[in-house]
Input
Amino acid sequence: MKSKFKKIFAGGLGQLTIPLIAIALLVIFNLIRDPSFFSITFSHNNDGNTIIEGNLISIINGASELAILAMGMTLVTAACRGQDISVGAAAAIAGSVFVKVLKAFSVINPGTVIFAFICSCIVAMLFGCFNGVLVAVFKIQPMIATLILYTCGRSIAYWINGGATPNVKSHILSGIGSFIPGIPIPTPVLIVILMAVIFMLVFRFTSLELLTQSVGINESAAKLNGINSTFIKLLSFIILGVCVCVAGMIGVCRLGLINHETLLIDVEMDTILAVAIGGNNLGGGKFKISGSIIGAYVIQMLTTTLYAMKVSSTDVKAYKAIVIVLLVVIGSPVVKREFDKVVRNMKAKKKSVSKGAAES
Output
């Protein structure tokens, strides 16, 4: 156990230290405020299936779309040294395509759902490729390049379904957005686990992680070593497109309809903050997908805590901003450097005291 803690805190403030501390503080605060905050109960939904409920389940379920988007955003941030601010609008487009294809069939069955998902995934990847070309080929700063889709994306989603908000009711879709019969855990949580496992396997059996970090740390050096930085950047945006599609599909299945104006509204900033809180450098380079996932749950736990404290919805963003600014500042390179300096001085002082005691 001691060796594990040493590994976490190795080199001063480790990459996962800040999000883990944030989670721990929120847990302690909620347990003091309300000891039953994390209680879990078993109940039955409208279909008579056994499900688990409670604030903890609401947190991990509510953060599902954010966690999935944060995984893809981490790759874009690491490779391109910038962020994609169009993920919410792109999710609205993917969700609109998903619904449009489903409405083209008279019956919704597993085959049509899979086909609709593939179609929406292709569209999301194409829009991701569009952003990637602007960044990788035309060398436009990511936030500026993705501002185009951020501005017009929801209008495109509006046009796809002719301005309507069609319903898509099906037990298959409700299973994706809520619970699969016989499984008490929310399906979006299972999808997050599946996406995390896929990323883990990709990093385990390919060199994508190393190549992405190499391009983000020093693109010129990466090119000299034969790495195609343009392709890596494009690939990161395409992978983010897949994550956008999955998040958009979950959002549609939760509601049973597509609303281009409200689907994952304002998720862009939360996604970027999840990456930052996760200890990832927003200037690119080394990254940890696990840190971004934890960062997503930190944001969702903070939101749930504020609502449990009866904070009005208009004030929640202000309180979130204060806490998140503190977390980001604490995890900034300047604070990390100063913390490392203090740790080194303490070690040096302890070493000198031990040496003096030995000589005497």
In short: Strands lie at 41-44, 50-53. The mean pLDDT is 90. The longest helix spans residues 110-136. The two ends are 35 Å apart (CA to CA).
